[in-house]
């Protein structure tokens, strides 16, 4: 089992940023390797992701949004024990900190860097989308 975490700061108000990040339809725009996400029944989300080897995998996951604490949690059923969370915290009037945490039973360490690399890529995507691409301006 292993846990991986990353954090970045973003020039955006925490409430506006969290509203964007918590919309299931926006997940593929910032989550590394995710190519599609559609809401299902209740807290279910149907996803497609591109794997590092070039193949694609489809799956069903749960996705929970806690607005008052600006906390997202997700995971999938199965033996890999995969789950994660994303927290958004204000660090100023128009500045936020985003933290992503992943837990998996599949590996004991990230020898090839793919899990930590995915977290780092996700955080960089969030920062780029918001600060350079103006994703929150729409």
From TrEMBL:
Pfam families linked: Polyketide_cyc2
Name the record gives this protein: SRPBCC family protein
What is the organism of origin for this protein? Actinomycetospora chlora
Instruction: Output the lineage of the source organism.
Output: Bacteria, Bacillati, Actinomycetota, Actinomycetes, Pseudonocardiales
């Amino acid at each position: 089992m292993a846990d991986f975490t990353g954090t970045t700061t973003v020039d955006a108000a925490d409430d506006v940023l969290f509203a964007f990040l918590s919309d299931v339809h926006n997940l593929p725009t910032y989550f590394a390797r995710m190519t599609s996400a559609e809401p299902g029944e209740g807290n279910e989300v149907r996803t497609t992701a591109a794997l590092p080897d070039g193949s694609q995998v489809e799956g069903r996951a749960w996705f929970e949004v806690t607005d008052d604490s600006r906390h997202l949690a997700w995971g999938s059923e199965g033996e890999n024990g995969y789950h994660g969370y994303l927290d958004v915290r204000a660090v100023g009037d128009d500045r936020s900190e985003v933290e992503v945490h992943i837990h998996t039973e599949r590996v004991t360490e990230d020898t090839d860097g793919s899990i930590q690399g995915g977290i780092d890529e996700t955080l960089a995507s969030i920062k780029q989308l918001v600060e350079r691409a103006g994703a929150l301006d729409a």
